[in-house]
Structure formats: structure tokens, C-alpha cells
Structures
1.
Amino acid sequence: MTNDNWFIAAGSRPEAGWTDVVDGRVAGWAHTGLRTGTLRDGGELRLPADAVERLVVPLAGSFTVAYDDTTQVLEGRASVFEGPTDVLYVGSGTAATITGTGRVAVAEAPTETVKPSTYIARRDVPVELRGAGQSSRQVHNFGTPAALDAVKFIVCEVITPAGNWSSYPPHKHDTTVPGAESNLEEIYYYEAAVSRGVADIAPEAADPFALHRTYASDDRAIDEFRQVRTGDIALVPYGWHGPAVAAPGYDMYYLNVMAGPDPERVWNITDDPAHGWVRQAWASEQLDPRLPYEKESSR
């Protein structure tokens, strides 16, 4: 069944200057959080000293983050379709203030454990080109266990060229099976834009969008099929999820935040057995030649 708790339309949960805030106050939600906000010259966004770890992710623009007695400049990027950005991990219990110009996201996960705050430069972000053919996409793994020493969350972002399918085959991570499957709720923050290959012919009336799908994997009812646009947030508490589809003419981006009750911070998944075989077909297909999306590429 469709549940309005699992879809946050852009701007529908504003708080203290933030465009949207998703946290444990959403019914049925417990392990992850997300803040998104827009700053103009002279403005600031504040992060309270709560018991949550955070990852500050520039979406568009550059920012300065002041915390403890430290100031960290984030170079950022012009848009999410320009490849990876530098990011800042801020340990639990740390207050911070963000200034600058542009759009910023902050991934969160509740934890009392304190890890040291860490800056990851753009050049150090692991970039993965995943899938093949129309399942080709680009993954920036700046908040995965291999790249970041965090406590609970796993954070990454994905660029999917127009017409391609992402988060595919559909999969789940809603049951603890040691060594095989993790129990992780997941946030998808979406953006969509006219594809860089056709931007010069798109009319002003163009309305970039993508599609998101979540459906039941057991007796817990869920049935979400949403058209998503820039700023929309889809929540996956459990169930099969995927595909996320980039409509022809429109590139798709999403930021993923995952965490759960398991003691081990690991992303183990189970494919929907009706569709998992598709991975084998990638061996005979080529990677989409439009990838990678990089900073020097123009829209």
C-alpha cells in the first residue's frame, strides 16, 4: 500500500531554515536521517549538538563548515551531475554551522559513539562504474566502509544517465542474515535534470523527473511507485526496492543513506529472485559510453 510516510515531497518538512528534515520523528523511521537546505550569501544553516553522526555533502555550490575550533572549506561542485564532491564527516555530539551559497545535504544516523571528524577530498572519493548497457550508472562511495570510518551509516550517491535503470535488479536489505543480508533502512534523495547530451534543445517548459519503486518482500505491506523530481525524498523501511528509472531526456541523481540495528556496518543484499539473473547479462554488454560524468563535462 502507498504510505505518505514513505514519500517526502520537496519542501514538505521544513525546519529551522532547512528545506526538509527527515529523522526519527517520521512514524516507523529510526536509524537514518537527512537534512537538505539552500543557502545564499550571508545565510547559515545550523546543526545542533545531537547524538548523531553526520556527513555534509555539497549538492551545488561551495560551503564552509565551522565546528569545534575548526573551519573546513568544502569546494563542492556546480551540480550533482559534475561527478563527485568533497565531503565532511562530523562526529556525534558535535554542533556545526554551514555557510556558503548553493544546495547542501546532510546525512545522519543516531549514535552515542564518537568517531573523529574527517574531511574527504574530491580526488580521494572512490568512483565506481556499475552495471552495463541500460543498467550503467556511476557511484560515488564517499561514505562506505572502505572510504569512511563511521559508526552506523553507509552513504553514497549515484548518477544515472537518461534512459537508464538504476538500483537494479530490485533487491532488499531488511532482514539480518549474518554474512548474507543486512538489515538497513534507506533514504533516496533525488534530483533530475535535462540530460547533458540534449540540454541545448530542451524547452524552458521541460519538467525533469525520474521513477522510484518499492514493493513488499514479506508480510509487511508496502507498495510505492512514485514520480520524483529534484528535492523529493523516498524512504525505504523494508521491502524490495528498484528500479529507479531515469526517463529518456533526463539524467537522474540520488543520494543514499543507509543504517540499521545490526552491529556490523556492512551492505549485504538479496536480489529479487525473479530479476537477479539480469546481472549475468551484463557480461555481454558494454558500459554506457556517456560515463563517467566528470567536472569538466558540460551540460
2.
Amino acid sequence: MSSPRSVYHFNSAIVREPSRSVVDGLRAGEHAGPTYEGVKAEHDDYIAAMRDAGVKVTILSALEAFPDSIFVEDPALVFTEGAILLRPGAASRAGESAAIASTLRDMFDIVLDLPGHGFVDGGDVLTTPKGVMIGLSARTDRAGAEALAGCIDKLGRKAELVATPEGVLHFKTDCSLLDEETVLSTARLARSGVFKDFKQIIIPEGEEPAANALRVNDVLMVPSDYPRTLEMLDKLGYRIAPMKTAEIGRIDAGLSCLSLRWYRDGK
């Protein structure tokens, strides 16, 4: 098993440019969608922040046929040991794994295909030093989660199936890893007891979307529209990089889903 260093220490990442069709991305409710220009600006800032944190970023071309394809974390999962091609739970995203497969096969010696017929979105997968948590949700069913656990075992890691709160899109919508011992969580997810083995920092009421932060090396990327969360994390000593997420938030997305991140040995 890799050392805990690989959990949030990264030197490599893959992102995909937003398509013009991103304005038609999946969303809950009837609210207005984002603008392409708004999403592109947030995405450009994200790439810059990744590079500033010491990560080499590979940028893939936009896929107009897939409005949500900017969210590259959902169709695949990557570790230092290898990559896993997933099967997203939304029908409109069914071709995204095939679209990224050749890139992953060029970059990883081991690329596993999710066996069976179950579904998994990468947004439901949280990697911690204690293991890989797979959240059951509307996009990740038990068959897919169990198949993924088997793939993770083949890569020398261990997986645990956990529950995503009802009405929450993805497990990581409500949580993120702050360091080896600490998670940032919404109160509703913390109440489930899933993080009983961690120190928990609870998001202030009303700022729940800020739970999808992203630790990259020494930098903690946090959605910029949640001042109480930013202040709390700053006082706790984290090096904060506030990131605009209002546009991607209109299509139910957050910081973690914009990239595939790993530590490439020997690079």
C-alpha cells in the first residue's frame, strides 16, 4: 500500500476543457444554468491554482457531445498504483469513460475496467490514509461499489462502502480530506458516524457546499463564497486558496470533480 503521503500529495493531474455544451450540464431543480464563459474562467483559475501548488497538469480537449465531461473525476479513478475506468450513473455520461481511456492507458501501466454492470461516479469516492471510502448514492449503486472495491483491492488498497445522505448527489459533496487525520464534513454526514476514526471539522450551518474543498500538497482549495468556512479553516492554520465555484455549482459540481490527481513516482 502507498504511504499516506500520496493521499493529498500530488505532482500530476488531468483536467478537461469545458465544452460549449456545458451550459446543458446535469442539475437538480429548475434554476438557471451556467454560462460557458463563466465556467471557462473558473476552470482556468483552477488549472492555475493546481500549477501554483506544484502539479503538472495535462489538459484534454473539450467533448461537445458530453456536457458534463469537464468533471473528469466521475468516469475514472487514479492512484499512484494505477487507474480504474468507472461507469457513471447518469445515462448522458455513459461514453465519458471510453473517451478518457486512451489517455489513462498512456499514463498508467495498470488500467482496470470496472467489471459487471453496476455504476460508480468518482465523486462518491474519498481516498484517506485509512482506506478508500465508496459512498452509495443515486449515481453509485451497490453492485458498482462492490466491483470497485475489488479493483481497489487489486491495486493493493482497501475499500469501505459507506452511505451518502439522502438527497445529496455525491459522497464528496458533503466532505473532503483536510490532512491525514482530519476531514471537513457537513453536520448531516458527520451524524452518520462514518468519520468516527477521524478528527472532524464541521461546516457552519448554511455553508454546506463548502464541504467540497480540495487539499493539494500544502494548499487547501475552498469555494470562495463561504466566509465563515474560510475564516474557520484559516484560523486552524490551513493555507487557503479561495476558488470561485458559482458557475460550476449551477450544474451541481465542486472542486474535487474537476481533476484526476495522483503522485507519479520518479517524476
